[in-house]
């Protein structure tokens, strides 16, 4: 299911040697999708219905829920299966005995894990801001929202489509599927397929992408659904389910050709598209040559998240040159951008 190329290789090569574009010299890319990263998480606690609805109202093309699973097999939206930092679970005495230490994808983590709670139990918890030191204003919403299920997110999306008359996409990520299958016995691929069927997503033309950092789950999904699939890649490391693989090798010309056998796009760390020096890399052109779209993660407004050429004066939480970085990314022919601030992206 290859997708169309957006930029000729010759244009990309000319960009590699060019300096980063300042805000006043941005290159328009009207086709670049705005993907609301965990909702409008620059303004509301992430992965809440309030964050998703705000993102939709701000013009996001897609909203992105990371999906983990409850002990009774329900897909819910949290960035990680450890919910210590995104809910009030640590202050809930009734759940004090649920604290565990687990090895998740090679990392020891102590906390409270979604897969140890039923949906009914999880619904008693309340979301809180994950980065209160950076996004102090978001903390005023702590305790107001619960943890939504994927089905509830789709229901919100449908309601907003009816309200606005426009198509709104959803971009779920399967988190830690190998860990959940091997250690918990829950197959999130099966759960995802069931949810896709119930929601009526079955075609490459539907407004949905399903993403994962692992390889096997995407290959299995490719055999069971025609919706578009996205291989996520980080700047370092490799897929948890394929220890011999490195993302750097997967991002090479030959690696991208292999990815294109089961995926329609790649989702990559922005540093793989525009380096820390503000210079473009060949990745977008190489991926387009392989028939893959490229979606980059994650564009945020605060200095702490921006490359040096786009930082402003002030501390880590000060707003930097978001527009300039957006322009440099758009100039590469990037097909979509994950952002915590869809309102800012919509203005570019």
From TrEMBL:
<comment type="similarity">
    <text>Belongs to the glycerophosphoryl diester phosphodiesterase family.</text>
</comment>
<dbReference type="InterPro" id="IPR030395">
    <property type="entry name" value="GP_PDE_dom"/>
</dbReference>
<feature type="signal peptide">
    <location>
        <begin position="1"/>
        <end position="25"/>
    </location>
</feature>
<protein>
    <recommendedName>
        <fullName>glycerophosphodiester phosphodiesterase</fullName>
        <ecNumber>3.1.4.46</ecNumber>
    </recommendedName>
</protein>
<dbReference type="InterPro" id="IPR017946">
    <property type="entry name" value="PLC-like_Pdiesterase_TIM-brl"/>
</dbReference>
<keyword id="KW-0319">Glycerol metabolism</keyword>
<dbReference type="GO" id="GO:0008889">
    <property type="term" value="F:glycerophosphodiester phosphodiesterase activity"/>
</dbReference>
<dbReference type="GO" id="GO:0006071">
    <property type="term" value="P:glycerol metabolic process"/>
</dbReference>
<dbReference type="GO" id="GO:0042597">
    <property type="term" value="C:periplasmic space"/>
</dbReference>
<feature type="domain" description="GP-PDE">
    <location>
        <begin position="32"/>
        <end position="348"/>
    </location>
</feature>
<keyword id="KW-0378">Hydrolase</keyword>
<dbReference type="GO" id="GO:0006629">
    <property type="term" value="P:lipid metabolic process"/>
</dbReference>
<dbReference type="Pfam" id="PF03009">
    <property type="entry name" value="GDPD"/>
</dbReference>
<keyword id="KW-0732">Signal</keyword>
């Amino acid at each position: 299911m290859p997708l169309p190329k957006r930029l000729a290789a010759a244009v990309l090569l000319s960009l590699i040697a060019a300096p980063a574009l300042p805000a006043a010299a941005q290159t328009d890319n009207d086709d670049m999708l705005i993907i609301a990263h965990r909702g409008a998480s620059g303004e509301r606690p992430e992965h809440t219905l309030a964050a998703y609805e705000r993102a939709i109202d701000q013009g996001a093309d897609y909203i992105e829920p990371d999906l983990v699973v409850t002990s009774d097999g329900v897909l819910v939206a949290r960035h990680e299966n450890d919910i210590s930092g995104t809910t009030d679970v640590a202050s809930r005495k009734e759940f004090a005995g649920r604290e565990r230490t687990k090895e998740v994808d090679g990392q020891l983590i102590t906390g409270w894990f979604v897969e140890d709670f039923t949906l009914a139990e999880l619904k008693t918890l309340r979301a809180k801001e994950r980065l209160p030191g950076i996004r102090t204003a978001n903390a005023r919403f702590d305790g107001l929202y619960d943890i939504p299920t994927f089905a509830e997110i789709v229901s919100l999306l449908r309601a907003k489509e009816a309200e606005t008359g426009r198509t709104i996409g959803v971009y779920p990520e399967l988190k830690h599927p190998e860990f959940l299958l091997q250690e918990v016995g829950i197959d999130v691929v099966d759960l995802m397929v069931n949810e896709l069927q119930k929601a009526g997503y079955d075609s490459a033309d539907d407004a949905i992408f399903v993403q994962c950092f692992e390889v096997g789950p995407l290959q299995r999904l490719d055999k069971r659904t025609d919706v578009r699939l996205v291989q996520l890649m980080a700047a370092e490391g490799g897929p948890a389910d394929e220890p011999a693989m490195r993302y750097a090798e997967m991002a090479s010309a030959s690696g991208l050709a292999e990815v294109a056998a089961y995926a329609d796009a790649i989702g990559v760390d922005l540093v793989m598209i525009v380096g820390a020096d503000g210079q473009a890399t060949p990745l977008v052109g190489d991926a387009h040559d392989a028939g893959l779209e490229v979606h980059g993660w994650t564009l945020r407004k605060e200095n702490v998240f921006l490359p040096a050429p786009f930082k402003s004066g002030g501390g880590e939480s000060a707003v930097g040159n978001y527009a300039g970085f957006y322009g440099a990314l758009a100039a590469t022919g990037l097909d979509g951008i994950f952002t915590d601030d869809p309102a800012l992206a919509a203005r570019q």
